[in-house]
Task: structure prediction
Amino acid sequence: MKQPETPGEVYVVKVTLLGTSPPVWRRILVPREITLRNLHRTLQTVMGWTNSHLHQFILQRQKFSDPRHRVGTKVADESRTRLGDLIWTAGARLLYEYDFGDGWQHELLLEEVLLGDETFQQMCVAGKRSCPPEDCGGPQGFAELLQALQDPNHPSHEEASEWLGDFVPESFSTDEINRRLRRRTKH
Result:
């Protein structure tokens, strides 16, 4: 079942990284017509990931990904699927999974549908906390890493501090994310 398309619709999507406490999240504005392939690139940018791992979108039992990666059988081509073909009413959800080893799952919640115009550019309008570092072991590994980082007496504190460098878990900047988004869309 496909919702009829209204030109210029803009989706307000809250992206929550599941399993993180306190939660890491972003609120983004994207065109309804965005392909899942381009949405993947946007999510990598707004979350702060480095696009170093496989990914997939999941709606109910249907999976969407880049067919060149052969993520599994019966996987639909993300470059031929638009976000608005899958979700179109406030409250609808889509799952985005990144890095199957670490198992980062992002809930994409359609909060609102707005009308845009030809000048619309996708953007991040809100969010909280830094994205976890790549290859840190998923939500459990990230929680352990944060614990070691915050406790100078933790046996892994020095190693965590050295690995993460100037990582600030509470850091978040819509300005920086939107700068990266604009840079990415120019290429």
Remarks:
- Strands lie at 9-17, 24-31, 55-59, 62-65, 75-77, 93-98, 104-115, 123-128.
- The mean pLDDT is 93.
- The CA atoms of residues 3 and 145 lie 43 Å apart.
- The chain has five helices and eight strands.
